[in-house]
Amino acid sequence: MDERAPVFFFAPFVSSTMRVQPAWIDYNGHMNMAYYHVLFDRAVEEAFGLVGLGQDYLEERNASFFAAEAHTLYKRELRAKDAVRVTLQLIDFDEKRLHFYMEIRHAAEGWLSATSEGLSLHVDMATRKVAPFPDDILANLAIMKATHARLARPQTLGRVIGIPGRTEALNPLREPALASGTRH
What we know:
Elements: E1 13-14, E2 18-19, H1 33-49, H2 55-61, E3 63-74, E4 83-93, E5 97-106, E6 112-124, E7 129-130, H3 135-148, H4 167-170
Antiparallel strand pairs: 1-4, 2-4, 3-6, 4-5, 5-6, 6-7
């Protein structure tokens, strides 16, 4: 008999509080872009550890998940010693992939610093090839997705990178991109 407790998820998942390290500050006086990915990655580890995809999964089942694609939007600077929390919303999954959305927010003041949309692949570590998730992980992902499906769909999902008005000129066969309201 399986004695595992049922999986429960908050919507969205909220990471532990993390602090911007002074060594992460670049010559512009704010956190360097590489360290946003460190914070996002730590939140991914926490969130998907809850579905059973932590380090013990790698050690016991010789499988893991790898980042395949990420799209990050930087909204507001973070500075040394700022405390942050990262939220994660599972958007979708299938037998081999995870699609998720994250936000870094200042832990005390709540303002949005950055967002990231990611796609990860489940990998058999013996072959280093994409492979299906086991049934128990798929069941946990289904619970997580059902919980997160109650959340609003993030407006920036699937956002196209380009200079507004010029993307269509570079590829005239492509459908025009819808304005997202974000200007850089």
